[in-house]
Amino acid sequence: MVTWTPDPTATDDDGTTPEVTCIPAAGRTFPVDDTTNVVCNASDAAGNEAICTFNVTVDQQAPVIDNCPSNVRTNNAMVTWTPDPTATDDDGTTPEVICFPAAGSSFPVDETTNVVCNASDAAGNEAICTFNVTVDQQAPVIDNCPSNVRTNNAMVTWTPDPTATDDDGTTPEVTCIPAAGSSFPVDETTNVICNASDAAGNEVICTFNVTVDQQAPVIDNCPSNVRTNNAMVTWTPEPTATDDDGTTPEVICIPAAGSSFPVDETTNVVCNASDAAGNEAICTFNVTVDQQAPVIDNCPSNVRTNNAMVTWIPDPTASDDDGTTPEIQQLLTMMGQLLK
Fold first, then answer.
1. For residue 324, what pLDDT band results from cuts at 50, 70 and 90?
2. Which residue from 9, 66, 212, 269 has the fewest beta carbons nearer than 10 Å?
3. d(CA 295, CA 22)
C-alpha cells in the first residue's frame, strides 16, 4: 500500500487549481518486488493537459550481508575483526553495515558480548548478522606439572604427562621443550618448559628440571675381610657413601652387621648404595667364622737330661684350616711358675 507526500497539485493561468489525478492512485496496492510507473494528469477548462510521472518500486528484498564475522575470542579488550562485514542490495547499491558495539570498542573483560550488525536499503528492508565477542584474560591451568626428575638414563620420560584445562571448557595442548622421550645431556641439569595456550591467546607455563646423573655414589670405609671365631659378626667402621648430588645415600649390607654368620664357612658380604638417579655402587668383603683350632705336629715327648741347655728335635709345627702355619709359642714351667 503506497502513498506519497505531498500530493501533487496544479495551478492554471486562469487562476483555477485543476485537480491532479494519478494512476495508479496513492493508497493502492502496488506489485511486490516490481517497479510501477505512476502518471499524474491535470487538465484546465480549455482542455490543456499537464502530466508528471514517477516510479514506485515495492522492494521487500532485504540486503545481503557478506563476511559476517565468526565468534571472536581474544585476551585484548580493544577488539577488531577482519574483514569488516559488507552488504549488497538488489537495487544495485551497497548499504552501509553498522555494528553495535563497533569494531575498535572496548569490550567487557572475562565476559561474552553479542555484536549485532545491521544494514538497511532505501526501501527500509533490514538485514542483520550477529556474532559473539569474548574477552578472555584467564589463562589455562596446567595440571600434573612434573616434579624435578633425576635419572641415569639419557632418554627421559615423565608420568603422568602434564595436561591443561581452560575456562572455555577446552583442554589446550601442553607442549614441553625439550619433549618427553628426548635425549638429555649426561651429567647435566636441563630446565624443561611446558606451555599451554587457549583460543584467546592466554598462556601458562610450568617448569621443572631434568638431571641425567650417571655418576655412581662413592662408598668409603669398605671393610677388609673379617676372620673371627664368633658367629655374631660386626665390623668397624661401618661403610658410608657420598654422592655428587650432595646427599649421603644409605649403605645396606647383606648380610648385615650383627647377623649370625655360618660357622666354619666364608660368607661374601655385599654392601650397596644407590642415589636418587638409580646409580649403584657396591663394595664386597668376606666374613669367615672359623671355630677350628690349629693342629700342632711333632709335639716332643717329655725330655729328661743332665744338661741345663735343653733342645729337642724336631721342633713342633702347626697348621691351620685357613692354610696358614701359626707360630708356636713355647712355654716353660718351673716350680709351678709359667715362664715364657
1. confident
2. 9
3. 153
CA torsion 268-269-274-279 (nearest 10°) is -20
Cell numbers at 76, concatenated: 585484548
How far apart CA 50 and CA 7 sit, in angstroms, is 15
Contact status, residue 293 vs residue 316, Cβ threshold 8 Å: no
Angle formed at CA 260 by CA 254 and CA 266, multiple of 5 degrees: 70
Tell me, yes or no, whether 192 and 227 share the same domain: no
Whether 123 and 92 share a structural domain: yes
Is there a single domain that holds both residue 54 and residue 68?
no
Largest separation between any pair of C-alpha atoms in the chain: 200
Cell numbers 647377623: residue? 259
Asked whether residue 295 is domain-assigned, the answer is no
Tabulate helix, strand, coil % of the chain (nearest 5): 0, 40, 60
Residue closest to 263 by CA, chosen among 236, 232, 224: 232
- Checking if the pLDDT of 339 tops 50, the result is no
List of residues 6+ apart from 268 with CB closer than 8 A: 284, 285, 286
Lookup: cell for 43: 487538465
Number of domains into which the chain is organized: 4
Say which amino acid occupies 314: P
Peptide bond into 262 cis (omega under 30): no
Digit-coded pLDDT (tens) for 32-45: 888 999 999 999 99
Cell numbers describing residue 181: 622421550
CA 124 to chain centre: 55
The three cell numbers locating residue 130: 550477529
Which class for 317: exposed (0-12), middle (13-18), buried (19 or more C-beta within 10 A)?
A: middle
Flag whether 245 is in a domain.
yes
pLDDT, tens digit, 9 for 90 and up, residues 118-161: 999 999 999 999 999 999 999 999 999 999 999 999 999 999 99
Residue 235's SS3 state is coil
